[in-house]
Specification:
With 212 residues, the chain is mostly helical. 76% of the residues lie in helices and 0% in strands.
C-alpha cells in the first residue's frame, strides 16, 4: 500500500506561495525601515554639519581679527599697503588701518598726509606714495621718540600737557631744535595754538622743514 504524501501538490503550492508572500513583505518592510533610518541620519548629520560649520566659521573670523589686531605688521608693509590704496584714489578704513597696527593718532596723521599730497602732483603712483609716506613716517617716528624719551611724562595724545612742566619743556625744545632745527620760540608759538598730538607736531615740523 502506497504511503499518502504529507502535503498534496495543491497544499505545497499554497505553502510555497505563503513563504514567498511573507518573505517579500518582510524584505520590503526591512528595506523601508533601513531607508527611513538612513534618511533620518542624513538629515540629522546635515543639520549638525551646518551648525558646526557656522560655529567654526565664526570662531575662525574672530581669531583672524584678533591675530590681525594683535600682530603689528612691518612698517614698510604698512606703508606699502597705504601707498597702493592711495595711488588708486582710495583710503583704507580706520578699522583696516588699526588692524595693521596703527594708532588712532597715526591714522589721523596719514589721512591728513593723503589729503594734502592729493592736492599736488607729488605722488603719481604707488612708488611715489611710498616715498612720501616713508618721509612722513620718519618725521612722525622721530617726534614720537622725543615724546617717549621723556618717560612717564610723555603722552602721544597730549604732548602739550608735559610742556607745562618747565624742565620737561626745556628738554623737549632742545631736542626738537637739535633734531629738526626748529627754534624754541617757534615751538612755543605752535604749542600756544592748542595743537597737542604727536601728529599735530609732526605736521608742524614738516611745514617748517619745507620752508627751510
Amino acid at each position: 500500500m502506497a504511503k499518502k504524501p504529507l502535503l498534496s501538490v495543491f497544499e505545497k503550492f499554497i505553502l510555497l506561495g505563503l513563504v514567498i508572500f511573507f518573505g517579500y513583505n518582510i524584505f520590503q518592510k526591512g528595506g523601508i525601515t533601513m531607508m527611513e533610518k538612513t534618511e533620518e541620519t542624513t538629515i540629522l548629520d546635515g543639520k549638525m554639519s551646518s551648525k558646526k560649520y557656522k560655529e567654526y566659521d565664526q570662531k575662525e573670523k574672530a581669531v583672524s581679527r584678533k591675530n590681525l589686531s594683535s600682530k603689528k605688521l612691518d612698517a614698510d608693509d604698512v606703508l606699502g599697503n597705504l601707498a597702493r590704496a592711495f595711488s588708486k584714489g582710495r583710503e583704507n578704513t580706520a578699522r583696516q588701518m588699526k588692524e595693521m597696527g596703527l594708532s588712532d593718532d597715526e591714522i589721523k596723521y596719514y589721512k591728513e598726509v593723503k589729503k594734502e599730497v592729493s592736492l599736488t602732483e607729488k605722488a603719481k603712483d604707488a612708488q611715489d606714495w611710498f616715498y612720501v609716506l616713508k618721509a612722513s613716517a620718519s618725521t612722525y617716528g622721530k617726534v614720537k621718540s622725543l615724546v617717549q624719551d621723556l618717560g612717564d611724562r610723555g603722552d602721544d595724545e597730549n604732548v602739550n600737557a608735559m610742556l607745562e612742566d618747565n624742565s620737561t619743556s626745556s628738554d623737549f625744545y632742545k631736542k626738537l631744535e637739535s633734531t629738526f632745527n626748529i627754534s624754541k620760540d617757534e615751538a612755543e608759538a605752535f604749542a600756544n595754538l592748542g595743537k597737542k598730538k604727536v601728529s599735530d607736531w609732526a605736521k608742524f615740523i614738516e611745514e617748517k622743514t619745507a620752508e627751510q
